[in-house]
TrEMBL record:
Residues 143-183 are annotated as: Disordered. Residues 148-159 have a biased composition (Basic and acidic residues). Keywords: Membrane, Transmembrane, Transmembrane helix. InterPro entries: DUF1003. This is DUF1003 domain-containing protein. It comes from the Bacteria. The chain crosses the membrane at residues 34-51, 63-83.
Length: 183
C-alpha cells in the first residue's frame, strides 16, 4: 500500500538540481569575469554615492550598505563553493574507485597472460625443432658408421663441376634429383 506523503512546513527541493546550480555559481565565482564585474559594481557604487546629488545617494560615505551586501554575498558564496567541492569530491571518489577496479582487473589479466606465456615457453622447450631433428638424424647416421651423413652402402654424391654448394645439390635444377620435367 502506498504511503501518504507527510505534510511539512519546509519547502521541498531537488537536491540534484540545487547541487548543479551551486556548481554553476561556484564556477562563475571562480572566474576573472566575476572579479571584473564585482570590481565594476563596487567602483560604480562608491562613485555614485560620493558624486551623485545628496537626495539620490543611497549609501553615504562609510558605505555600510555596501559592506552589508559584500558580507551577504560572501556568506552565500562560501557554502555554495563548499557544496560544489563536496559534489566534486564524490565524483572523484567514484572515479577513483572505478580506476582502482580497472587496475585490479588489468593486474589480474597481466598475471594470467604471464602464466600462459610461461606455460607456452615450457611447452616450446619440449617441441622438437627442425634443426634439432636434423642434428639428431645426422648423429644417428654417424653412429651407423658413415660419419658423413650418408646411409651405409650409399655412394657419395658430388656436384657437377663448377657448381657451388654441397655435394648432391644442383642449384640450377632446383635441388637433388630434379630435372626440367619435375618443375
Amino acid at each position: 500500500m502506498p504511503q501518504v506523503p507527510k505534510l511539512t512546513i519546509l519547502p521541498e527541493y531537488d537536491p540534484e538540481a540545487f547541487g548543479r546550480l551551486s556548481e554553476r555559481i561556484a564556477r562563475f565565482l571562480g572566474t576573472g569575469r566575476f572579479i571584473v564585474w564585482m570590481t565594476a559594481v563596487i567602483i560604480l557604487w562608491v562613485l555614485w554615492n560620493i558624486w551623485a546629488p545628496r537626495e539620490l545617494r543611497f549609501d553615504p560615505y562609510p558605505f555600510i550598505f555596501l559592506t552589508l551586501m559584500l558580507s551577504l554575498q560572501a556568506s552565500y558564496a562560501a557554502p555554495l563553493i563548499l557544496l560544489a567541492q563536496n559534489r566534486q569530491d564524490q565524483r572523484d571518489r567514484v572515479t577513483h574507485e572505478q580506476d582502482r577496479e580497472q587496475n585490479e582487473r588489468s593486474i589480474a589479466d597481466t598475471e594470467y597472460l604471464t602464466r600462459e606465456i610461461a606455460a607456452l615457453r615450457m611447452g616450446l622447450g619440449e617441441v622438437a625443432t627442425r634443426d634439432w631433428i636434423r642434428s639428431e638424424l645426422q648423429d644417428l647416421l654417424r653412429d651407423l658408421g658413415t660419419g658423413d651423413g650418408r646411409r651405409p652402402g650409399q655412394p657419395e654424391r658430388t656436384a657437377r663441376p663448377g657448381a657451388p654448394g654441397r655435394p648432391g645439390v644442383f642449384p640450377d635444377r632446383g635441388g637433388p634429383g630434379r630435372d626440367e620435367g619435375d618443375r
